[in-house]
Amino acid sequence: QLQLQESGPGLMKSSETLSLTCTVSGVSINSINYYWGWIRQTPGKGLEWIGSMFYNGRAHYNPSLRSRVSMSVDTAKNHMSLSLTSVTAADTAKYYCARGLEMAALGDAFDLWGQGTLVTVSS
Amino acid sequence: SYVVTQAPSVSVAPGKTATITCGGDNIRSKTVNWYQQRPGQAPVLVIYYDGDRPSGIPDRFSGSNSGNTATLTISRVDAGDEADYFCQVWDSDTDQYVFGSGTTVTVL
Fold first, then answer.
1. Which residues contact A89 (CB under 8 A, 6 or more apart)?
2. pLDDT above 80 (res A44)
3. What percent of chain A has pLDDT over 90?
């Protein structure tokens, strides 16, 4: 079954490093047909793109987060990971992983989303 | 960076047509994608490349893009269409995705 499933710590403290995993089922994460992304949604509902990664490991990050974020892919486990350093309360959000359209380019739509994982940062 | 603007809310009677707009400077030069998000659920792509529909999305959903406004139109609205709708573009000047703030569609 084609699906994405995020997992993460739930609650964390300011200055810690957030680590999230997106487990992909039903499609190979290193397929040349797709790219993958992380998007977060704050409690006020706004959506913010965090970054995207291609099958070859090439990543693109939101300029406002670039200094704190990194993404990686584990092809053996068929999952991708997100790391965000020095978190603050402003990083409290629901984090989604998503798949880009087939044979699309960076900047195109995301056609499959996970259910998201809520991350709360306390001071 | 590029800014897109959406009205906070739209109300529509069942069976009527809902029109949701996404405004931006010369937005017609960009491709616009639209997502539906029902309460407590993840976003779902309903329109991509301005007006294409993913498989499984009813043809009641349509999109257009002209001038400074992109539009998502939902015809024959029913209660199941109550959701937040977000537009999304790619800002090639700053190399980042930009999302609108979302429009809440309420079916009266």
1. A14, A121, A122, A123
2. no
3. 80
- As a whole number of angstroms, the distance between CA A21 and CA A82 comes to 6
Per-residue pLDDT reduced to its tens digit, A15-42: 999 999 999 999 999 888 899 999 999 9
Tell me what pLDDT residue A19 has. 98
CA neighbor of B100 nearest in space, from A98, A94, A100, A41 = A41
Angstroms from B91 CA to nearest CA on chain A: 8
Residue with tokens 């790219």: A35
Nearest to A49 among B41, B54, B96 (CB): B96
Residues in A touching B41 (Cβ below 8 Å): 115
Query: CA B9 to CA A73: how far, in whole Å?
Result: 39
Site of tokens 């999952």? A79
**Chain A: nearest CA to B90, how far in angstroms?**
5
Within an 8 Å CB–CB cutoff, is residue B36 touching chain A?
A: no
* CA–CA dist A52, A38 (Å, integer): 6
- Strands in A18-25's sheet, in edge-to-edge order, are A3-7, A18-25, A79-84, A69-74
Interface contact A109-B99, CB threshold 8 A: no
Whole-angstrom Cα distance, residue B14 to residue A109?
Answer: 29
Give B-chain residues touching A115 at CB under 8 angstroms: 41-42
